[in-house]
Inverse folding.
């Protein structure tokens, strides 16, 4: 330690003497140069010497004071090399010299990038400190902005960052595609050269390769498979390919060598297909669709597709694939013979068409209210010659249920209403009689029919509730009037409902409806020539799921007042009533038809509606039992709570079948549909599930559970809404009936008050 101290002191003395000598004679100083031989010298002393030699002003950071440096020069150096050597010494010791307005700050290098560092503007990379003598400072700390024109800076920054010093800084600025670097001038020059070499214009171009025989989509899949295998081994992709289905072409982009390589692959693969025995026959079992209908659609689709492909490929049309599709109605299957590629396309179409079609339950409400009122008052008199057998004088009005002979003979016929008469009186050979007829009738009818029918989407359904009545269409007899016979045609009389629903996107339904309500006229029920009352609708409407809509109605009001009398005599006061007959008839008929469609998309919804209807039927049956219990008549057997019990004697079997059916439906919804129709596909080996697959399965189960909960809530809301609508409907019926009864009662009172004294 003592020898080293002495060496240091000796060296320090040499430096001090040299500096004093230089200061004393500057010219001699520059001519002679500098020769440094310092070992573990204090940095502050070195800075003092450099400041005296160069005339620069230095400021030392407190963190750099006390550092030791070593400089040994084998020969004399000039002032420029002296300062450059000083900067190199600072860099080696982790220090930086920053020039700020003529004052050079010596600070730790890791703080240099946070200081006001001079910015390089010279495109050569290293700044000039003296433009007259072209003196350089390669180890000084600077900042430079390097702009790239072709290559994104995000791609170059990872490559350039290892090239700078640990205390330097390099950052990309994508908005202007520039790189900002803070480091020594030498490192900045090196980074600038690298950027210039990498920032070259892209030589990639694009070409279109038209295919003659191969399919563009299949060929691109093959090339991309080769490209992916090469990329996994570390190779860089030199080209990109994409198909153009419309022109059956391949778009190739990349470098010249890459394009040449891929075009050679395309040329080798774009050749006529070799005849092989790849055509196979597969049997596809359908779940929902009808095999005959689906076969017609597939035959038309494949024929058009093959013809279009042959026309587009030109010469390839001679190698058109043979496709046969047939249906087996007994097993509801499709038998398909085609190549594997065509098989895949056909199975994809089958998967999209063989779906569960929604069903529609249509409820029709036919409300008919009719009222008939009639009054009749009249008198008939007559005189009859007992000897001659001919009437002398009489009054007779149409519609009477008795004849003059009854009156004269004294036999009062049986009729409706009140008959008051006298007869059998005689005056000589003349017999006479008189009868008075008074009748008032009041009839009210309230008919409510609610036919319900269920059908699939776009399928017509027909429902007839009534009688099949014979109508005589002709009568034939021979010349002797023996063995006559009649020709009869039977027709349905009652309620007929035809409906064809079409479910549109969303919840709207387009309904094609034909509704007919017919009945036999009461006056012709027992006659040979029957008369029917017929009311029919034929319309097409748009309605929402669950909406009640009126599709038609009829309001008919008829009033008839008929008076039959004997002229002059019937107009006489008081006694004129004996010579006239008055009939007053009033009828009123109201008819309205409503529809209420509801969509059933799954089994759960169908079961909900089924149970709702069954509960309505069971409720009506229970109400009937309550009414019969007080009358003492024989009561019908009670319906069970579960309608399925009606089909079997063991209810547990039904519950097990329902549970199994729901399990199958849930499994079918959860399973993937990839190989559902490919019956000849080989079984895949079981593999352990990855974490991503397990998460996906868990998400699917969670979504399925949410869907089931939502369906249950929806069914509960629909059931509650249906229950409230039914209660409201029954209330409206009761209120309507009460209003009708009050109206009829008021009309009776008005009729009695208006006709008081008539009878």
């Amino acid at each position: 330690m003592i020898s080293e101290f002495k060496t240091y002191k000796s060296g320090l003395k040499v430096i001090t003497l040299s500096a004093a000598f230089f200061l004393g004679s500057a010219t001699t100083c520059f001519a002679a140069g500098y020769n440094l031989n310092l070992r573990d010298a204090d940095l502050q002393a070195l800075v003092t010497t450099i400041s005296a030699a160069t005339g620069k002003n230095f400021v030392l950071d407190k963190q750099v004071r006390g550092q030791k440096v070593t400089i040994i020069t084998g020969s004399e150096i000039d002032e420029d090399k002296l300062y450059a050597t000083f900067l190199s010494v600072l860099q080696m010791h982790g220090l930086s010299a920053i020039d700020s307005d003529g004052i050079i700050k010596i600070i730790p290098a890791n703080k240099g990038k946070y200081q006001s560092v001079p910015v390089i503007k010279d495109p050569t990379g290293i700044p000039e400190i003296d433009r007259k003598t072209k003196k350089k400072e390669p180890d000084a700390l600077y900042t430079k902005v390097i702009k790239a024109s072709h290559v994104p800076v995000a791609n170059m920054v990872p490559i350039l960052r290892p090239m700078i010093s640990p205390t330097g800084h390099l950052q990309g600025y994508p908005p202007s595609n520039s790189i900002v670097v803070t480091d020594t001038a030498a490192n900045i020059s090196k980074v600038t050269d690298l950027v210039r070499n990498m920032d070259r214009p892209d030589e990639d171009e694009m070409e279109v390769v038209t295919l003659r025989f191969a399919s563009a989509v299949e060929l691109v899949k093959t090339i991309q498979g080769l490209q992916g295998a090469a990329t996994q081994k570390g190779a860089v992709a030199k080209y990109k390919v994409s198909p153009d289905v419309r022109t059956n072409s391949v778009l190739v982009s990349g470098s010249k060598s890459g394009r040449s390589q891929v075009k050679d692959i395309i040329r080798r693969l774009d050749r006529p297909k070799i005849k092989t025995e790849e055509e196979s026959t597969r049997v596809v079992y359908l779940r929902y669709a009808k095999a005959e209908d689906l076969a017609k659609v597939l035959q038309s689709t494949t024929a058009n597709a093959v013809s279009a492909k042959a026309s587009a490929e030109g010469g390839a049309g001679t190698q058109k694939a043979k496709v046969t599709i047939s249906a087996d109605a007994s097993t509801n299957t499709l038998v398909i013979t085609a190549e594997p590629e065509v098989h895949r396309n056909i199975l994809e179409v089958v998967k999209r068409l063989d779906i569960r079609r929604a069903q529609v339950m249509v409820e029709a409400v036919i409300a008919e209210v009719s009222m008939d009122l009639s009054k009749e008052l009249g008198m008939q008199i007559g005189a009859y010659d007992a000897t001659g057998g001919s009437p002398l004088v009489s009054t007779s009005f149409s519609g009477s249920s008795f004849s003059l002979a009854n009156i004269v003979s004294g036999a009062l016929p049986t009729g409706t209403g009140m008959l008051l008469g006298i007869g059998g009186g005689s005056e000589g050979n003349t017999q006479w009689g008189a009868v008075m007829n008074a009748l008032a009738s009041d009839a009210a009818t309230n008919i409510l029919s609610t036919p319900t029918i269920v059908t699939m989407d776009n399928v017509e359904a027909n429902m007839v509730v009534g009688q099949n009545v014979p109508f005589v269409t002709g009568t034939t007899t021979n010349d002797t009037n023996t063995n006559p016979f009649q020709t009869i045609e039977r027709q349905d009389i009652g309620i007929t409902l035809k409906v064809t629903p079409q479910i549109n996107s969303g919840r709207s339904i387009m309904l094609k409806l034909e509704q007919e309500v017919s009945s036999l006229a009461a006056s012709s029920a027992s006659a040979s020539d029957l008369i029917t009352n017929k009311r029919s609708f034929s319309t097409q409407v748009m309605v929402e799921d669950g909406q009640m809509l009126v599709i038609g109605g009829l309001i008919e009001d008829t009033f008839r007042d008929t008076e039959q009398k004997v002229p002059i005599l019937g107009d006489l006061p008081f006694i004129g009533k004996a010579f006239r007959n008055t009939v007053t008839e009033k009828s009123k008929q109201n008819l309205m038809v409503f529809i209420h469609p509801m969509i059933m998309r799954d089994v759960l919804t169908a079961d909900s509606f089924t149970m709702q209807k069954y509960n309505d039927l069971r409720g009506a049956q229970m109400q009937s039992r309550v009414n019969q219990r007080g009358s003492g008549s024989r009561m019908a057997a009670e319906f069970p709570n579960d309608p399925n019990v009606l089909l079997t004697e063991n209810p547990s079997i039904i519950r097990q079948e329902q549970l199994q059916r729901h399990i199958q439906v849930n499994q079918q919804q959860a399973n993937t549909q990839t190989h559902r129709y490919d019956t000849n596909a080989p079984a895949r080996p079981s593999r352990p599930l990855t974490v991503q697959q397990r998460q996906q399965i868990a998400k699917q189960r969670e979504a399925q559970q949410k869907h089931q909960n939502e369906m249950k809530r929806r069914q509960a809301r629909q059931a509650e809404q249906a229950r409230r609508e039914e209660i409201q409907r029954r209330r409206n019926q009761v209120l309507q009936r009460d209003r009708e009864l009050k109206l009829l009662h008021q009309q009776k009172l008005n009729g009695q008050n208006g006709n008081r004294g008539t009878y």
The two ends are 158 Å apart (CA to CA).
